Amino acid sequence: MSAQSAVFVELFAVSGLRTTESQRLLSTLSPLLLAHTQPFPSEYEPPIQVVTTGFVGGSKDSAEASAEILHTANVRIGFVIGFDQTYGYFMDKAEELGMTGPGYFWLAGDGVGNAKVQSSTTKQINGIGKMLSLGGVPGASVYDQFKANWDGFDNSAEGTALKTYAEAMWLDPWVGNDGTTDLSVFSDTFFADNVPDDVATYAYDAVMQHGIGACAYKAAGGTFDADFAAADFFAAVTATEFTSVTGSVRFLRDTTGSRDPASSNFILYNWQCEGETCTQYTAGSWTALSGWDYSGGDTPGGSFRFSDNTLNAPSDRGPPPYEEKNLLGGGLVGIGVLLVALNYCIAAVLGGMTFWKRKDKVIRASQPMFLAMVLIGCCVSTTTILFFSQDDSGDYDKDGEVDCMMQPIFYSLGFTFR
To answer: Which of 67, 117, 180, 323 is 20 to 30 Å apart from 335, CA to CA?
Structure first.
């Protein structure tokens, strides 16, 4: 999943889906275990900002809370990592919040089934994308050799033994995803009739990766008995690099155990709707050698179409959502100014009386200088009300920042005088 996230960022960093330099705010929705471990490219200028939101798998409340967080962050371009159930919860809440349709773009990960996307509302479907791990790419020498061996597996002793073992595991008829395949009985041409998909090819390379890594671990003196060193074995597996069915296999040098996205292959789907009829198209593909390529797609016009039925990617930020700031009304501001003026007048009158009666024994005992400082302090503290009222006028430019800084300064300075 982290590999897909990195390729998603590149999709908008260097590909044709990025139409303006302002598209630098992206988001991902992912399980909590992945939310803080996704490696995003940092070499792009200006830097890309990614808002990552985690959810508890299968939790409706958690998925809806994630949608609300992204809504508050004003994110308009996002990648949904998860499975059908969480995707449904999130997209339904996003539609409720007005985060679907023109001005928004959502890309689903390969954990979301095509049927789930197709069963959503038209507003959710139109212009949406889905990124799928492509697995092996025909034309690559290793994949072509693997495919030839796969097709001939029906006639090998190993293939026969494998099908016999699999049939024994399925005691009762089991219907596959196509609704017709009974996997408790394999046909004589099972392998020739079924092209190895991304799951098969990635699973094959995963087994090869662990096997080669285990050999390297063993050669370095590791054992698989009571002295088995899990950290050394993990290091040996993730350090292994080789060319295989799904490309140049290598892992990121971190603690996630994620495959380097530059060694994977992906395909990009695009759903386009005409009225209530929505059609899935192939928009393009990504490989380590060519990056994103849209020449092999079958979309009308050969381009990815977004939710506003144009070829222009939405902006990464929309207008800021309405926010109730609970500012002071004009009436309260006027009352505050009046009270400040009244306080100034009272201080002036008391200051004049203190000066006029400065030789009176009561005033002398109270220290005229001290009384004057108290009056000045009261005036300075009360002046804070004026800065509060200016800030609440709704002006948050540099003048508003100065008003905000003056409030604690005048309030504390007034107490210092007193």
So the answer is: 323
pLDDT at 216 over 90: yes
Q: 320 lies in a domain?
A: no
Q: Which residue has the tokens 């409706």?
A: 60
Q: Which residues of 14-40 are buried (b: 16+ CB within 10 A; e: fewer)?
A: ebebbeeeebbbbbbbbbeebbebbbb
State the pLDDT at residue 12. 62
Q: At residue 39, does pLDDT exceed 70? A: no
130 and 272 co-located in one domain? yes
Residue 319 domain-assigned? no
* Cross-strand bridge partners of residue 282: 269
The model carries a pTM of 0.58
Whether 160 and 280 share a structural domain: no
**Do 212 and 232 lie in a common domain?**
yes
Q: What is the pLDDT of residue 217?
A: 94
Assess contact for 133 and 81: CB atoms under 8 A. no
Chain centroid, CA 284 distance in Å: 22
14 and 100: one domain?
Answer: yes
Residues 67, 152: one domain?
Answer: no
Which structural domain, as residue segments, surrounds residue 398?
Answer: 330-417
Q: Tokens in use for 113?
A: 């089934």
User: Six-digit token pair at 17?
Assistant: 């889906």
Interval 88-98 mean pLDDT: 91
